Amino acid sequence: MSALANILVGGVFHAAVLFLVSAGLQLVFGVQKIVNLACGSFYALGAYFGIACVALAAELGLPGWLMLPVLLLSGVALGVVGPPIERLLRPVYGRDESLQLLLTFALLLMFEDVIRFVWGPNPRSLDSGYLVYGTISFGDFAVPVYNLLVIAAAIIAAATLGAFLQRTNYGRLLRATAENRDMAEALGVDVRRMYATVFTAGVVLGTTGGALIVPTAAASLDMAIEFVIQAFAVVVIGGLGSMRGALAGALIVGLIGAVSIAVYPELEILATYAVVIGVLLLRPSGLFGRRLA
């Protein structure tokens, strides 16, 4: 039972980070209809910038328990890269998906070079800094408190995002723009400003997810491509453009990965994509995606 509990908590922790990045991907696609391969770059950028901010906080003499707030703030601060990138993507709005994929993949490669130039080619980590929050133990079951805090942060983010989209006027305008951009624009909605806001929110979700993962995993140059593959597995399983799908898909991918690593690590990727293939065969739109006419 202790081993099972450890696997479940580990899977949910990974799912929490996956959800943050995938929610940003879903939000951007749902409103702007852009399939954003650069989401993995935002995740990697958040990881490296988070490490730099924690190191700076340590140099300033801030206590170790402020690591989580520092990481959250570093992820939010990187939202400044959202508006200029969104402006760069405007020429491909409404164009063929292949153009969107090519441009966002080019951005992913460019960000990889930016990270290499700023932080170098070697992996970086925070060692075991997250243990400053302690560990909860029950017999053989032990989980770092930091992992539980990240899970709680993802739950709060999901609830806040859902309430914002469903219960605020701006959220209703977002959903109306997603349904019919031309009609929303005709009724006076500033679609360009809304697109910039949505894309920036997607960037913040991705960078925050990357910042939160670094206390438990090293930041490396290849993490962007690795994570974008997982993020797209999440959206394929859950359904492109669906927030409920992002949550369900992240849980499925996270738990499958945790179980695979515990049982037979070599099966992790294979098990995940076996589920992806099954969903594509049985329900091509995803678990919560809309069926196309």
Detailed description of the structure:
- By secondary structure, this protein is mostly helical.
- It has a single domain (2-282), classed as ABC transporter involved in vitamin B12 uptake, BtuC (Orthogonal Bundle).
- The protein is built from 12 helices and 2 strands.
- The chain has helices at 2-32, 39-59, 67-77, 82-89, 97-119, 145-167, 169-179, 181-186, 191-213, 223-238, 243-263, 268-282; strands spanning 135-138, 141-144.
- A two-stranded antiparallel ribbon has the order 1-2.
- A hairpin with a 2-residue loop joins β1 (135-138) and β2.
- α1 runs parallel beside α6.
CATH topology, by name, is ABC transporter involved in vitamin B12 uptake, BtuC
The helix/strand order is HHHHHEEHHHHHHH
In the CATH scheme, the class would be Mainly Alpha
Please give the order of strands in the largest beta sheet. 1-2
Query: What's the story with the biggest beta sheet?
Result: 2 strands, antiparallel
Q: Show unreliable segments.
A: none
Outline:
globular
Rounded average pLDDT: 87
Give the N-to-C terminal Cα separation.
46 Å
Could you say how many structural domains there are in total? 1
Range of strand content: under 5%
What structural class do the secondary elements suggest?
Answer: mainly alpha
Number of strands: 2
Gyration radius, in Å = 19 Å
What is the number of helices?
12
Overall CATH architecture = Orthogonal Bundle
Helix coverage percent:
over 70%
Summarize the model shown.
The protein is mainly alpha-helical and 293 residues long.
